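W.,

You were right to be curious about this one. When I first looked at the sequence I had no strong expectations either way, so I just let the prediction run and decided to look at it fresh. Below is the sequence, 114 residues in total, followed by the output.
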Amino acid sequence: MAEADLDIVIRSIAKKQIKTLTDAAKKRHARFMGLAAKAKDKESRDRYRHLARNTQQLAAAAARRLQITAENAADSYARSIKRAAEELAATKPAKEKGPAKSAKTAKPAKKKKA
């Protein structure tokens, strides 16, 4: 099942990228919430909270898009490899068959006397 290895690699790379993206978003969210806690007035606090919320939402949307793209690429690769293997299997038996006997080399049938 060597043909399925690359699609697994595609999925694992995407999984690592998604994890990195969500970790960075969590850190940025925490930073904005810390700034909101230290804010002197209500407007600044609300602005930082809004930035923190938007950071989480946009990161989640980006992670979903990244995951969907990786799944599509991995599935497309797996389908193309499967199709190529089927085409190879379909053409291989035709090449292995020996040459057919021609009409000239075949012995003519004996005629019965009536």
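Here's what jumped out at me. The mean pLDDT is 85. And, maybe more interesting for your project: The longest helix spans residues 42-96.

Coffee later to discuss?

I.
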